[in-house]
Amino acid sequence: MSFQEEYNEIVLFDGVCNFCDSSVQFFIKKERKPILKFASLQSETGQRLIKQHGLDKRDIDSIVYISNGKARIKSTAALFLAKRLKGGYPILFGFIIIPAIIRNWVYDWVARNRYRWFGKKDSCMIPTKEIRERFVDL
What we know:
- By secondary structure, the protein is α+β, with helices and mostly antiparallel strands.
- Helices cover 39% and strands 13% of the residues.
- The chain is built from five helices and four strands, in the order αβαβαββαα.
- It is globular and about 40 Å long.
- The chain starts with a helix and ends in a 20-residue tail after the last helix.
């Protein structure tokens, strides 16, 4: 199995951000099928995938969703992840019709303020034993 196949469905997140950590926990609880893998942006895997997908590190500060060989960032990543959740969350994907420049303005505003609003950790989260296998580079 190649590196890309092994990490076909992966969420890269800011490992020191409390809001991002809470978001990962939310995805784990609400995901329809436990397929997603997770890695921090700061990890070796995160850095390798960012480079592999030709992403500009200046555009990535909170979330990347890689699915079927395509990397999505910012609000687009969040909306595509919403489709994977159970309950009414997939309906949020309807916001994809709003131009990305508008969606990302809101997304960037939250991302710029996330440390102030939600705090910052000194290190990446340590998942519980039950979900550890879903995390890469631990």
